[in-house]
Amino acid sequence: MANRSHLYTCDEIPGGKGFRARGLSEYGWEIPLVHKLMVAANPHVVRSAIWEHDIAIIADREGAFDRASAFFDKLGEGDLGDRKEFDEELAQMKEFLATTPPSKYILLEAGEILDLMGEDLNKLVADLHAEIPDVAARAAAAVAGEEDAWLAELRSEWAEKARPGYWSDILYYSFDGTQSAESSDAVDDGDDDDNDDETPAAKPAAKPAKAAPKQPAPANNAASAKQSKPAEVKPGAKKPAAKKPAAKKPAAKKPAAKKPAAKKSAAKKPAKKKR
Question: Residue 51 and residue 80: Cα distance in Å, rounded?
């Protein structure tokens, strides 16, 4: 199963009681450009709602949808391979965002992707946080008619570098209390490493019927899938079966001691009469 970048809307910072978030988008194997654009307004690092680390990024929602839509409209003005697929994804994104209820924040949960990189998570999220304003500024310049070389590069490989992506309010991790029995297990990444301090806090939710767009897996997928998993409960050591005491054999009966035959007293002869 692919590691994903997850995007949500919410009205409070993760960590409080009763935290709620509504799903927006998920993307496999990397943090896509569209997710970075969505958290470009006043982003800051906060405690993750999924992992027990400060590796989530929250930002103001205001202007996020318009910023992303404007950039992908600009991208779509040029020549694109698989034009139909691009147009369908962009139309689905716009339709979904147009019906998303109001909220205060956009929350980016990219811990699964950061964990794949095999470095210190705090450093990785700091690098991501520093990158977001630069990406947003470059996108704004592209919309304004600049960055032609960058746009041309993205158009030539949009499916790998700049796809509109997959949008739904039902993502793998749920924060609205919904959960399906069939998806109550944690992510299985094929790795047997145990990390007790990186346990998912959120419950996996039911997957939508519509499949996410196909995305290329990293070349070193099998070797690098290092996602943390909930600690496994190791079976207790088997106790050796109690030895049953051997059945006691009845003690061999000793032959009764033979009593010596009673001696018969000699018959007394009558005394001789004196004459």
Answer: 38
- The 10 Å Cβ neighbour count of residue 138 is 17
pLDDT in tens, the chain (275 residues): 678 999 999 999 998 777 899 999 999 999 999 999 999 999 999 999 999 899 999 999 999 999 999 999 999 999 998 999 999 999 999 999 999 999 999 999 999 999 999 889 999 999 999 999 999 999 999 999 999 999 999 999 999 999 999 999 999 998 864 433 333 333 333 343 443 344 455 555 534 334 444 454 444 443 333 333 333 333 334 444 444 444 444 444 444 444 444 444 444 444 444 43
- DSSP for 146-177 reads --HHHHHHHHHTHHHH----EE-S--SEESSS
Please, are residues 60 and 104 in contact by the beta-carbon 8 Å criterion? yes
Domain boundaries, the chain: 4-224
In degrees and rounded to multiples of 5, residue 24 shows phi and psi of: -120, -55
Number of H helices, E strands in the chain: 8, 8
Report the predicted TM-score, pTM, of the whole model to 2 decimal places: 0.68
